[in-house]
Amino acid sequence: MSIVTPDTSRPGVVDVGRQQRGQRSQTSTRGFGPAKSPSARRLSAGLVLAAVSAATFSLSGVFASGLLDTGWSPGAMVLARVAIAAVVVLPLGIVSLRGDWRPVRRNLGLIAIYGAVSVAGCQFAYFSAVQYMSIGPALLIEYTAPAVVVLWFWLRHGQRPTRATIMGTLLAAVGLVLVLELFSGAPGTASVNPVGVGWALVAMLGVSTYFVINANVDTGLPPLALAAGGLTTATLALGLLGVTGLMPLEYSSAPPVYAGTAVPWWLPVLGLGVVTAALAYVTGIGAGRLLGPRLSSFVGLFEVVSAIGFAWLLLGELPRTIQLVGGVLILAGVIAVQAGEKRVKEGPASGEPVNEVVVDELVVDEARALEDRIIEEPGLQEPAIEEPVTEGSATDAPSVEERPLP
Description:
Blueprint: H1 16-25, H2 40-70, H3 74-97, H4 102-106, H5 108-129, H6 135-142, H7 145-157, H8 163-180, H9 194-214, H10 223-243, E1 257-258, E2 261-262, H11 266-291, H12 293-299, H13 302-315, H14 321-346, H15 361-376
Antiparallel strand pairs: 1-2
Helix pairs in contact: 2-11, 2-13, 3-5, 3-10, 3-11, 5-9, 5-10, 6-8, 6-9, 7-9, 7-12, 8-14, 9-11, 9-12, 10-11, 11-12, 12-14
């Protein structure tokens, strides 16, 4: 028996740990997203974090455009962006662990997948795709990730999407097509290449993995620790691609120009690392923990809308009316998905019983941490709670030490 698991074969002994573990075993998909229908405060905080993440991610295209004009290669920009973010977030991630490295050791594989697939692989695949096809179709394929997330939870966890979720998916898809102007006759929007489509699909899988892992609260990893581990792993992976020549690394010290103003080359590079990577990934993970993978992935679609807004402010590229209409449709899709998420969390409206026990993951994680601590420090063992001993019980018999010698 574990020192924190009393012998429940004895009457009156309460095994609280077993009760908690039993409750947790009944929650089939509670490792993802909020443990219950999010409160108004939780929902508001998650939406704010998701909006900040989408907005900061969208700035990467604006910063990158000026650097590309001066001779920077996409690979060099991505490597600089991820490496700077890793330097910024790594100390914060270490502090967030509070000296407890067990969550990191338990999730080394997950951290490696997050860094190699969700961060490095996604960006490498996207920039490889745009070498063979136009940016618009590549983005459209990449941002089908929310639909893939919905499909994954349906097939893998049996969470069938509601009608509201399906309607929201369709609205968001139409809005994305309008925002990207794929049928407007804009130059370059019709260029599609099979190789480019393949790379765009790989990027889409990377984005889907990003949203699913972000929302997994069952790892015990603080958001800062997950971001730090993923960005560090991605830096190593992208550096390996650069050293082997699979990803060209070219840079320039010429000053890029934004809205008619020349700035030092290091300023947009620093913005790429600190704002569009460090801040974007940390807030994205926080949003996933609060909103769950489906809703956070749909809110992430505002990255495309936000990119158009920043291009207007910083590059003088005025958005078209059809793009504004597309943004409204994306917003309507997000609202519909949120309505569908609420139905999923609350259960069927018919009052049909649901065999599921809601457990707060934060409480369970704290209980696990305390259990590990008690195992390592026997002095912290909690005494078992026993029933009072009645007269005539077996414990009234004298112990070996008390029995008189014959």
